[in-house]
Amino acid sequence: MRKPMMAGNWKMNNTVAEAVVLTQELSNRYTDAWADRADVVICPPFVDLKPAKTVLEFDKTRIAIGAQDVYWEPKGAFTGEISVPMIKEIGCTYCIVGHSERRELFGETNEDVNRKAKALIAGGLAPIVCVGESLAVRDEGTTNEYVCAQVRAAFAGIDATDAKVCVVAYEPIWAIGTGRTATPEQAEAVCAAIRATLAELYGADVSEAMRVLYGGSMNPGNVEGLMAQPNIDGGLVGGASLDATSFAELVKACL
Ligand code: PEP
Questions:
Q1: Is the pLDDT of residue 177 over 90?
Q2: CATH of the domain at 248
Q3: For ligand 1, what atom is nearest to the CA of residue 101?
């Protein structure tokens, strides 16, 4: 019922020349089934967005592009920031917000995430809202409370119609870039709690329509077990999205 999504978060990897090569390698592996049966998204660094989009447009490859972050103001004296109209003009249809690296390394708060999500929705883009707990929170036994509070904060003041276009990515911090994946059961338990929170906020119909992704060392060896879970609708993938063959295998697991 929900269309699966596989989104690659390239993080701070790939110069323009490298991004063009990787996008071309992906485009070469693309078949129409990818777009018909899933939403496939790549999220390169800002400077790579336009070159990546150009490759995809030239090849008529239906892979969407998204940014990894955005600022909530449309323009002005915000040195170093990038706005929603800027990424929209390039052709971005998605944007990651609240990635744990932004929260941990750059001090992004729940309020910032909420402002960014609202700005994206107002501009017609779909936010991919990242949430996830540290190992300390998991060990404390308060994962669901912590993650669901992040969801509530991210969606504060967003109505059901707008929420429906949003995607939530559950990414346990201890599993990101560590090679340590959450078991399918661990990931499913939190994704189910996220969907229950969305149901409280927006009702069952909306929550059943929204995609909840898993992220954290997803790779071709563990994707099947994760995708088999009823509340996991796809992946937000870092390391494995930097190799066209492995990303293509992750996409195939969604079809
Ligand atoms: C991520 O950064 O969103 C991520 C899940 O990274 P990795 O797949 O490398 O753990």
A1: no
A2: 3.20.20.70
A3: 2
